Amino acid sequence: MYQQVARVRHDGGMSRQPKYRQVADALRREIDNGTHPPGARLPSESELSERFEASRNTVRSGLGLLVSQGLVTSSQGLGYEVAKHEVFELNASRFENLNFEQNGDAYSTDVTNAGRRPHQTFRVEILPAPAAVAERLKAEPESRTVLRFCHRFVDDTPWSTQATYYPSWLIDEAPRLAEPGDIEEGTTRYLADRGIEQVGYFDEISTRMPTPDEARLLEVGAGVPVLLWMRTGYSAERPIRCTITTLRGDLNRMNYEIGDQSARGEGAPR
Amino acid sequence: MYQQVARVRHDGGMSRQPKYRQVADALRREIDNGTHPPGARLPSESELSERFEASRNTVRSGLGLLVSQGLVTSSQGLGYEVAKHEVFELNASRFENLNFEQNGDAYSTDVTNAGRRPHQTFRVEILPAPAAVAERLKAEPESRTVLRFCHRFVDDTPWSTQATYYPSWLIDEAPRLAEPGDIEEGTTRYLADRGIEQVGYFDEISTRMPTPDEARLLEVGAGVPVLLWMRTGYSAERPIRCTITTLRGDLNRMNYEIGDQSARGEGAPR
DNA sequence: TAGTGGTCTAGACCACCTC
DNA sequence: AGGTGGTCTAGACCACTAC
């Protein structure tokens, strides 16, 4: 029953990949060279098991590698499918994007222009500042902040979440921030009208695998990292907001235009 | 021998996590709350197997989840260890960083200031432009480009790779770009001295799991994504370079300073 | 040499989807 | 009903590390 006793090396001592890696590498090559185009179904585990003369579990290990690299997805009862990605560009340096609500609009417009259907849910909360936010807002840890939270979809696919925190002192000057409804004219304009103008921002970008919570909200499978984008906005005197955007790494790309872009032209990199 | 027959649900029909997820969740909680601090060894597979009344393979599946989320690492003969990360900040918007070679110096300086030992290997190649690069340099696909490639380490830990492509027309005006040695004064100054001034750049940032090649160069285990940073630099007339930086996602964070930063102060977010 | 993780197998049963 | 992936087990042997 246990065949390990009979296992031998046929490679004359050459260092060799374990079998599950061979399976993964072979399938990866076939995906790269178009044998299995994006969206195609892969052969079933039992077929692959025969083809590679490996147990089903070994084949599963190999497939698991590909899944964890975001190359294929799997679903029960259906099989394995080659992942296909349509990346959305997100311009992070245009002045318009200083405006959170308008940013949302820009997002809706972009998505609609791409022939897709945008959708978002929105809520407002008052809660103690998370440590990272308090630090950036130069506020006391645990001090009260208003959170305006946005969960964005494209064609019912979760795309990103955006959490903007405002310090409590700002609420006194701009009370509508703490009210649940949309702010028609956009929060930035609303703030500007009250004499609070955002003159600059500081962006921080990092990546990691999603936490279980994020995986749930963004419905990302194993093997898809998230892009974390943290923007702290400043008036001339002090920080006025901190926006944390969590983007599905497989669906988003950010860009910044710095300096003179006149030579970039229109047919610029999509 | 096979106990599945005897397996029953004790949850009265409530939806329940599979056992390997319970293992992962329990360990994740213990890591989060400090029971297993960064750098600590986790109990061995057999100990966990007893504790959770699960087979070794099931425990392995759970640990595999944590590894694939970058929370723990494993090594043969040693055991599982809680990952500890020290993130390096990378300022992508300061003018100095327009200068590739000087960027390298800035990196060396930063690393040295942090009490770590920087190290890099460097090579120059002439090769056809990859499609993405040709597009950004507005050059014919497959047209000749000079690649200046840099592999960076901190304390012998691979940190990032940086590949800068220059279009062939530039080589005629700045032949030293194609020579293997360092350019003492920095490539940007060298180019500026020859009348080619970089007046702006376009940055694109994305994330994904590393390819096998990248995993090898950066020595990242499963569960660590890479940050991809593509910078296209322009003179007033046309693109002059395209730099692709691949950063270990667990060790790097990028930032951009846009607009007036006077309110950010010095004790700014680390 | 003992203990750790790494690979692999054979087989059982479950949950989901399609027909 | 039949096929697909998902979970789980028990056990074998290998490779690496520490002592």
Automatic annotation (TrEMBL), chains A, B:
Keywords: DNA-binding, Transcription, Transcription regulation. PROSITE patterns: HTH_GNTR (PS50949). GO terms for biological process: negative regulation of DNA-templated transcription. InterPro entries: Bact_HTH_transcr_reg, Chorismate_lyase_/UTRA_dom_sf, Tscrpt_reg_HTH_GntR, UTRA, WH-like_DNA-bd_sf, WH_DNA-bd_sf. The keyword Transcription regulation applies. The keyword Zinc does not apply. GO terms for molecular function: DNA binding; DNA-binding transcription factor activity. Residues 17-85 form the HTH gntR-type domain. This is GntR family transcriptional regulator.
